[in-house]
Each structure stands twice: as structure tokens, then as C-alpha cells.
Specification:
Shape of chain A: elongated
Radius of gyration of chain A: 22 Å
Number of helices of chain B: 13
Strand content of chain B: 15-25%
Structural class of chain B: alpha/beta
Oligomer: heterodimer
Number of strands of chain A: 12
Strand content of chain A: 15-25%
Structural class of chain A: alpha/beta
Radius of gyration of chain B: 43 Å
Strand order of the largest sheet of chain A: 7-6-5-8-9-12
Helix content of chain B: 10-25%
Distance between the termini of chain A: 60 Å
């Protein structure tokens, strides 16, 4: 397949054309093009070794960053400013279980999720953020710690390339591992179809919240998973459990959609309660828009945090 | 059309399967992979309406295929009757009625006669019936020839009259001989429906030998009609013939007591008839034990030993005849001294040792009362005459030719005018031919004992038997000259031996043949006594003498008969003490019912079946089931020949093939149609 750059119509990249690009890195680059202005903020105050400037201390500022030596020499209070090497530590948690292999379009949910993850990674890396990766099915399969180094992005792309293999989607175990491995506070982006019971989800997400992480949840679904557009009664083969069930779609559609909706609402309610952003995206949604969803979510979050900090200061 | 396994036709119900499957609208061949079924519930299959039945042709093909399979497995065949129709066939029936002693028990014989009568009355006109009674031997009461000769209307009545003449005797039961004897009656006739109706008490004491391995005439069936006696405790006893008795035990009388298997008693008392003393014997039912009988009253010549304590309908008594001590006198003329091993008397005395039952006296000269004589010397003329007279009175002597000068003695004893005796030349002589038909050599008539060729005769005499003389040569030397000859002298006999048994003459005395040969000579002379005094009913009592005067016999019921000497007495048909008078002597013999007849517990007819007797099944039901079995066999045979199932299975396979092809075509058709559009 010729790897031609997809055209931007109405400002968005057509996902079908995007997915035709074989290289994950290239896909990410295409999407990220033009999104360099960061709208997010680091949860850390600048703290690095690379000194940039001094500025005079004004009352009320944190005294931690006062340069006491300079004060000793000049009897003036100066604040020492450094260029933050790391603005943000972001972990992408990508579901690569078999259920993600389902596709009604030319590409599967897993393809979409990978591309989206790669896009985010590329975008964040370009901003100078450290990006890490967890890929999981019923357990964590690949783990790359959040770093901002030369070559790290390529390693991350390679890890994302692996095909969905796991038998089942279990969020509990991978989330527990994420909480264990990412000790430093940061952003966690969960990209999954979330086709798993929600019973223990709240507990594990709460643990991440308690560790000080911010979290954004993307539920990736195939359009046909929402619409359930099948014509004839036939045997439905569960991609994960290998179970065959005879189902008449006309009879089952309504109840299926209701249950799916209830499930989505359940997850959303949990996220709201814990203060996470929840986005449901279908695989036919342009990736730019998905990225925009992410950035908007970050912007809202930033305002929210700013408001909180202002309240705290007053 | 019939079916060998009709229950397989139930498989035809399986046609409901295809019909239901065709009614159910389920495109099960379509299959789609879906991410998760966690929000889906299985849809129950829905039936379409009758008007929506799909693929009628396929459905029909599948139904026909299943029907053919079911029919094939049911193994159909066209019925044809191969069996001959069951019709009344000509039959030959032998009513074999047990008339042994055990049938004397209360009511048994009447029951047996009634059963036989029943068969006679029910006989079809085409049936031929013979009636036989048996104990130790079967005997014909009504033969098939009699039956056929009689007018048809009188047959049953006449046969009944003949049957009434029979009654159970005192004999034992030989079931084997009776059955085989009856079966032999069928041999000469071509009618193949043969039936023996055995009417018996089937007691365990019956002898069965001769049945196993007997080849029964084709079509013979044996039907057992058992008559049952009322339960009783039978026991019997039998005095044993004294065998080799130990010293000091000569007077002991051993008695064998048997208790019937179904007896309810275990204790009996054993004692002599008329004596007060008795002893208690204990034996469990079915057991047979041997006891030492109480001492008989002193000087008892004959008597009866009785067993008391059971329902001893006919057993319970055993007659006893005291064995006589036989005194045998043997005259020995010219045999030398008893202590001289080079003489002949030395050896003769060792051949005839005294026993508790027989005392032998050797007298050196002629004794008129002697039974047997051995002469080995040349007699003076006056003595020859007295010896000749002695012989003429029915005595037997053995003359040993000692030399060429024995001629006058030989001629004188035989009453011949002259006899030439010469010494035979040559090295030695061996016995060439022996007449084993003669009583003296008869005991040796067996390949194990008949080899006399090892005995060397160093010295022998040759003599000629005149053609006119009635002499019989019993043994000849290898050169053809007589070695031992027997010549009658009026009532008596002279045995002439052409060589002696002293070591100088021959090896005869040191041969193992010598003692039995001399013993048979003594027996043949009549000097030896029959060793037995106890007999069973049906046994033949050997004559106490083999030569001489006739023997007068007296039965226990007083009837008398006279038989020639040597002829055995065979009319021992009742138990008791038989008397034989001969030569002024009287000898007693006891005859008893066989002990086996006391073992009256009935056996199962299966015992007969085990011995290969072709038993007829008892009931009509069994016969019907046999018929059904035969019909089934015939059906199997017919089905095997016709093999219709092959065609049905082949047709089912062909239809399956058509179904597959048609089904495939139908399945592809919509796809092709879609492709066109």
C-alpha cells in the first residue's frame, strides 16, 4: 500500500485513510501536525538542574526556591528559576486484549487505539513530556517507564505494534500494576473498550487517584458495537471466550444496546465520581478530533485546577 | 414382508428429526465473530410456519434415507415356510418301566403302572408302542411286532395285561443297560420319531455305565417320568466277602451299611436275626460305612444280619452263609521227599499252602476220599487198577511221565491197551502252542500272562495219542509233541504232563506260571472250592464242582433244580440262602439285594442329560418354545439368503449422496444469485 499522506478535509484526517498508513509513527505525526501549543500544565513546579534566570522575590512566593547564597552575598531575595526538563509524566495504558481485535471497518479497535496512543505519545513527546506505556490484556504485557529521551519514542512505537493476543479484558490486575510501577504522580491515559465488568473498576481507579495521578479514560468502540447492525440470525463467536451463541440480532438489538449503554454509564459515573475525564470514541471518529477531545479535557482540567488553587490561596 | 429385528423399525421415528430441523429456521451455517458476548443473550430457536417449510425435496430425501436405514437394520425378508407342517407323525414309543427292588417300595409300582397305562391309553392310532421292564437287564413285555400284530382296538388292553404280569423283583438297577437296550430296539426301523418313556424312581443307586459315549439312534428322545415314593429313611447293609483276613481275625464279619441321601435317620441297630445282642451304628444320610458285625451265634452256618431303626421297606437284612473250611487231600505218588529240592513234592507243597479257608493234606498213597492226585512214578499193575477205578469215580489226577518206561502206567490209567513213551532227544523243549480255551489255561488268556515261552524243558517224553482216544492236548512242545493233555476216564480225568518240574527235568517249578497253573488244575478237578459265599441278586453262582455228578440246587423258597456240574446257577432272583448238594456234600450261598438299591434318594434327570441322554423337554410349553426357536432359525436363514438389507442400505447411501449434492447446490445457488445481482 502506498504510504501517501492523507488529505485534510474540513480540517480532519479521515481515519480510513490514516489507517492505510502502515507506519504507526507516520500516522501519529500526521495527526499531531499543528498541535504544538500545550494546553496542559505539569503537576510539578519547575525543578531541574538547568538554571535559566533569577527574578526578584515577591511576598507570598514559596521560599523553597530562594537562592540563599545570593541573599548572603547581596542581601536581596531572588528566586532561582530552572528550565523544567520534564513538564509531565504521562503513562499511556493501552488495552490490547482480543476483544480489541474486533472490526467492522477496515481496521480494528486495536489499530485505532494504537494509533491514538501513538498520536498522544508523539504529541506529548513533542512538548517535551515524558511518556510511558503499559499495554495489557488480562495482565500487563509491555511496560515502558515514562521518559523523555532520544529513541524512547521509537521503542514505544515498537511496543505498540504487537497484535492483540490476550484471552480476556481484565482491568483490575493491569491497573494494580500501573499503580505499583508509576510511583511518581503524573497523567494516566487509559485507552480500552472497557468491555469488562465494572464491579472492581472503581476500586482500582480510586487507588490511582489516591496516588495523586490524573486520569483520562478513552473508551474505544467499533461503530457496529454501538449500532449492532447485523441482518440475519446467526452464531456469534466470542472473540475472547471462543464461545458460540445463536443470536437473532433483530430480537437482541434493543436489549444489547440498553445493556451497553448502562455499562457505559456505569463507567462514566465512576469517572465522574473520581474526577476523571471520560471519553467514548468510535473508531470512525477522526483522530484529530479524538486528540482535540483530549486537549479540551486537559484545558478544562487546567481551569479546574487553577480555580482550586486560587480558592486555596484566597 | 417380515422383519428379523422389527424393533429397529422404531428408528423410523427419527424422521421427525429432519422435519423439525427443516421447520426451525436457523441459519446455523452463518457465523460471525464479535468482540464480546457479555451484553448478549442467546435467542431461542424459532419455528417457522408450516407454509414456510424449506427445501421440501431435501426433506423428503432425508426422510426416505432414514426410513430405508431403519428398514435395513430391521433386516427384512420375504417369508417362506421351510419347516414341515407340525402334524401327527408316526412314532415309536418304548415304555421302559423300572422293575428293580427299589420299586417295591410302597405305591411306586402302582404309580409306574398307572403312568404306563396313561401312555397306552393316549397312544394315537399311528403310534407303535413297546413295553419293556428292566432291572439289571431290560426285558421286552410287549414288542413292536406284538403291537402291530394286535388289532388296533385291543392293543392297549392287551399291553396292559402283559404289563400286569410284571412286578418289581429283587434285582439292582442298571439304567445304562436298560436305556441302551431299549434304544437298540429302534435300530431296525426307519421311523425317525423315536421316544423312550423312562418310568422310574430315578434312585441314586442306579448304575449308569454304558451311557456316556453311546451313539443314540437318530431321532431318539428320552422322556423321564419319575414316580416318587413318600419320604422315608432307607438304609441297607451288605455282608462283605471275607478277603485276605488278618491272623486272628478269621471269624470277623465285615458289613457295609449305606444310608439313603434323603434319609431322616442317622442311628441304626445292627444285629443277628434271633440274637439279642445288637450294636449301634451311626451314619449320616448319604453315607456308606463299613462296620465289623457282632459275633454270630456259635456254629452258625447261615443266617441273617438285620439293621433296625429305619423305614427299611425291603433292605435292612443281609443273608449270611458261613464260608466252609475246605479240606483238600492230594495224593502224591513218587514225588520224592518234602525236604528234597531236587524232587517235585518240595515244590508242590509250596504251591498249595494251607489257608484259613482251605486245608491241604498231602498223602503219599492212594486215598479214596482224595480229590486230586499227582503221580510221578511207574505204578505196579495192581495199583494201576485201583487208581483207574479211583479215576473212574470222577476224580482227577496229574500223571507226570518220568521216563520211557512210563508207558504201562499211562496205558493202564487211561484204560488204553498200549501206550508208547520215549525220551525225546535234542537240546531242550519249549512250549509251542497252548489251548487257552480249556479251563486250565483260560485264566492265562491274556497277553500279559500268556507267555510260557521262557520255560525250558531239559528232559521231556514223547508219547502218541491214538486217534480213537478222546484226549485233548492242552499244550504242545515246539516240536509238536504233546506237553500237557487231558483224557477222560469215565467220570474222571487224567492230565498227562510229558515232563516233570524237578530242576533236572525243567524250569517249570521256578517259573511264575507254576503256582497258578497248579491252582487251576486243582480247581478244575473240583477239589478247589469257589471262593465266594456271598452273592447279589442276579449274580450267577459258580458250580461248586466242575466235573462229575450234577449239582442239586435249592432256592430259599424251596424250589429245586438240578444243573450239570460246572454250570453256574443263575436264578438268583430273590434274596436268601441257596443250597447246593453235590457228591454228598452241601454248600450254602447267601444272595442279597444289592446295597445300591438302598440308596433311594432321587437324582435329577439332568444327571442323565450330563451323560448324553437326549432328554425330551417336559412340557408343551417347552416344545412350543422349541418350535419358535426353529422358526427363528428359519427366518434367520431366509434373511441370510435374501439379504435385502444390502439393497436398502445401498439405496440409503445413494440417497445420502444425492442429498449432499443437492444440498450443496442449493447452498451455492443464493450466493451465485447474489453475485449476479
Amino acid at each position: 500500500m502506498p504510504e501517501t499522506l492523507p488529505t485534510r478535509e474540513a480540517g480532519f484526517v479521515d481515519p480510513k485513510a490514516l489507517m492505510a498508513i502502515r507506519s504507526l509513527e507516520l500516522r501519529a505525526r500526521v495527526v499531531v501536525e499543528g498541535f504544538w501549543s500545550g494546553l496542559h500544565r505539569s503537576p510539578y513546579h519547575g525543578f531541574s538542574v538547568e538554571f535559566t534566570e533569577y527574578r526578584p522575590y515577591s511576598q507570598g512566593e514559596d521560599t523553597r526556591y530562594l537562592d540563599w547564597r545570593l541573599y548572603a552575598r547581596s542581601d536581596r531575595f531572588y528566586i532561582k528559576k530552572f528550565e523544567d526538563e520534564t513538564n509531565l509524566r504521562c503513562h499511556l495504558v493501552v488495552d490490547l486484549s482480543r476483544s480489541m481485535g474486533y472490526k467492522s471497518l477496515a481496521y480494528s479497535k486495536a489499530d485505532y487505539a494504537r494509533t491514538f496512543a501513538a498520536t498522544l505519545a508523539w504529541f506529548l513527546h513533542g512538548q517535551g513530556d515524558a511518556v510511558g506505556l503499559f499495554s495489557f490484556d488480562e495482565r500487563v504485557r509491555d511496560y515502558l517507564p515514562a521518559r523523555h529521551r532520544h529513541g524512547h519514542l521509537r521503542q514505544l512505537m515498537l511496543a505498540l505494534e504487537s497484535e492483540p493476543a490476550g484471552r480476556a479484558t481484565h482491568l483490575a490486575e493491569p491497573l494494580r500494576r500501573v499503580a505499583e510501577l508509576s510511583r511518581k504522580r503524573g497523567l494516566i491515559v487509559l485507552i480500552s473498550d472497557l468491555l469488562a465488568p465494572v464491579d472492581e473498576l472503581e476500586q482500582h481507579l480510586a487507588r490511582l487517584t489516591a496516588a495523586g495521578h490524573e486520569m483520562v479514560v478513552f473508551q474505544v468502540l467499533d461503530p457496529n458495537e454501538l449500532a449492532f447492525q447485523f441482518q440475519n440470525a446467526m452464531l456469534f463467536h466470542d472473540i475472547e471466550s471462543e464461545r458460540d451463541v445463536y443470536i437473532d440480532p433483530d430480537a437482541a438489538r434493543v436489549s444489547y444496546q440498553r445493556r451497553l449503554r448502562e455499562h457505559g454509564e456505569g463507567v462514566q459515573a465512576i469517572c465522574r465520581k473520581l474526577g476523571f475525564a471520560f471519553n467514548q470514541i468510535t473508531t470512525d471518529r477522526p483522530m484529530d478530533l479524538a486528540l482535540l477531545d483530549f486537549l479540551r479535557g486537559r484545558a478544562r482540567r487546567g481551569k479546574l485546577v487553577r480555580r482550586r488553587s486560587q480558592r486555596a490561596s484566597t | 414382508m417380515n422383519f428379523l429385528s422389527p424393533w429397529f423399525l422404531l428408528g423410523a421415528a427419527a424422521v421427525a428429526g429432519p422435519i423439525v430441523f427443516h421447520l426451525i429456521r436457523r441459519a446455523a451455517r452463518e457465523r460471525v465473530t464479535f468482540s464480546s458476548l457479555m451484553f448478549l443473550r442467546p435467542t431461542p430457536p424459532r419455528a417457522v410456519r408450516r407454509s414456510k417449510l424449506e427445501h421440501i425435496v431435501l426433506l423428503l430425501l432425508r426422510c426416505i434415507c432414514l426410513l430405508l436405514l431403519a428398514a435395513g437394520f430391521a433386516r427384512p425378508f420375504f417369508a417362506r415356510d421351510l419347516l414341515p407342517p407340525a402334524q401327527a407323525q408316526e412314532r415309536r414309543i418304548i415304555l421302559l418301566v423300572d422293575a428293580s427292588a427299589s420299586m417295591r417300595r410302597e405305591g411306586l409300582w402302582q404309580a409306574a403302572a398307572a403312568k404306563a397305562q396313561d401312555y397306552l391309553d393316549k397312544a394315537a392310532a399311528s403310534d407303535q408302542i413297546a413295553v419293556m421292564a428292566f432291572d439289571l437287564q431290560p426285558r421286552v413285555l410287549v414288542s413292536f411286532a406284538d403291537w402291530n400284530a394286535w388289532p388296533e382296538s385291543q392293543r392297549a388292553g392287551l399291553a396292559r395285561q402283559r404289563l400286569a404280569t410284571a412286578s418289581p423283583g429283587w434285582m439292582g438297577t442298571h439304567l445304562g443297560a436298560a436305556l441302551t437296550g431299549a434304544a437298540e430296539q429302534f435300530r431296525e426301523n426307519s421311523i425317525t420319531r423315536r421316544e423312550i418313556v423312562l418310568i422310574t424312581d430315578l434312585q441314586e443307586g442306579a448304575k449308569m455305565d454304558g451311557l456316556q459315549g453311546y451313539s443314540w439312534p437318530a431321532g431318539t428322545l428320552v422322556k423321564v417320568e419319575r414316580v416318587e415314593a413318600k419320604p422315608q429313611s432307607d438304609a441297607g447293609l451288605e455282608i462283605l466277602e471275607p478277603a485276605a483276613v488278618a491272623a486272628g481275625m478269621e471269624d470277623a464279619i465285615h458289613v457295609r451299611v449305606a444310608n439313603a441321601g434323603d434319609s431322616r435317620k442317622e442311628k441304626f441297630r445292627l444285629g443277628w436275626d434271633g440274637a439279642k445282642d445288637s450294636m449301634e451304628v451311626y451314619l449320616t444320610p448319604g453315607q456308606t460305612r463299613t462296620f465289623t458285625a457282632p459275633k454270630p451265634p456259635a456254629g452258625l452256618k447261615s443266617g441273617a444280619l438285620k439293621l433296625a431303626g429305619g423305614d427299611l421297606s425291603y433292605g435292612g437284612v443281609s443273608y449270611y452263609a458261613a464260608p466252609e473250611i475246605q479240606r483238600v487231600a492230594i495224593c502224591c505218588e513218587g514225588l520224592g521227599l518234602p525236604i528234597d529240592p531236587s524232587g517235585m513234592l518240595y515244590y508242590l507243597q509250596r504251591v498249595f499252602p494251607g489257608t484259613p479257608r482251605r486245608q491241604i493234606a498231602f498223602t503219599p498213597r492212594l486215598d479214596p476220599s482224595a480229590n486230586f492226585a499227582v503221580i510221578a512214578s511207574n505204578l505196579p499193575p495192581d495199583e494201576i487198577a485201583s487208581w483207574h477205578t479211583w479215576l473212574e469215580n470222577g476224580k482227577t489226577a496229574l500223571l507226570v511221565l518220568t521216563g520211557a518206561d512210563s508207558g504201562p502206567t499211562l496205558a493202564g490209567l487211561l484204560g488204553w491197551p498200549d501206550a508208547q513213551v520215549t525220551e525225546a532227544g535234542g537240546d531242550f523243549g519249549l512250549l509251542g502252542s497252548i489251548d487257552f480255551q480249556h479251563p486250565i489255561f483260560a485264566p492265562f488268556d491274556d497277553p500279559r500272562f500268556s507267555d510260557f515261552s521262557q520255560i525250558h524243558f531239559w528232559k521231556r517224553r514223547r508219547w502218541e495219542i491214538p486217534a480213537s482216544a478222546q484226549a485233548r492236548v492242552l499244550a504242545r512242545f515246539d516240536d509238536g509233541s504233546p506237553a500237557l493233555a487231558q483224557a477222560p476216564v469215565k467220570k474222571g480225568n487224567l492230565l498227562v504232563l510229558a515232563s516233570g518240574w524237578s530242576p533236572a527235568d525243567s524250569q517249570l517249578a521256578v517259573s511264575s506260571k507254576f503256582p497258578p497253573l497248579m491252582e487251576t488244575m486243582l480247581d478244575w478237578s473240583g477239589a478247589g472250592a469257589p471262593a465266594r459265599f456271598q452273592f447279589r441278586t442276579g449274580d450267577a453262582i459258580p458250580s461248586p464242582v466242575l466235573t462229575g455228578e450234577p449239582v442239586h440246587w435249592q432256592r430259599p423258597d424251596g424250589r429245586r433244580s438240578t444243573l450239570a456240574a460246572g454250570a453256574a446257577f443263575t436264578e438268583t432272583d430273590a434274596p436268601g440262602v441257596y443250597k447246593a448238594d453235590f457228591l454228598g456234600q452241601q454248600r450254602l450261598f447267601a444272595v442279597n439285594v444289592p446295597l445300591e438299591e438302598s440308596r433311594t434318594a432321587p437324582i435329577s434327570p439332568d444327571e442323565l442329560a450330563r451323560l448324553g441322554v437326549p432328554l425330551k423337554w417336559d412340557s408343551e410349553q417347552a416344545a412350543a418354545s422349541a418350535r419358535i426357536q426353529q422358526r427363528r432359525l428359519q427366518d434367520t436363514e431366509l434373511e441370510n439368503r435374501q439379504k435385502l438389507w444390502r439393497w436398502l442400505i445401498a439405496a440409503a447411501l445413494a440417497i445420502t449422496f444425492v442429498d449432499i449434492v443437492l444440498g450443496g447446490w442449493l447452498a451455492r445457488r443464493p450466493a451465485a444469485a447474489d453475485a449476479k445481482t
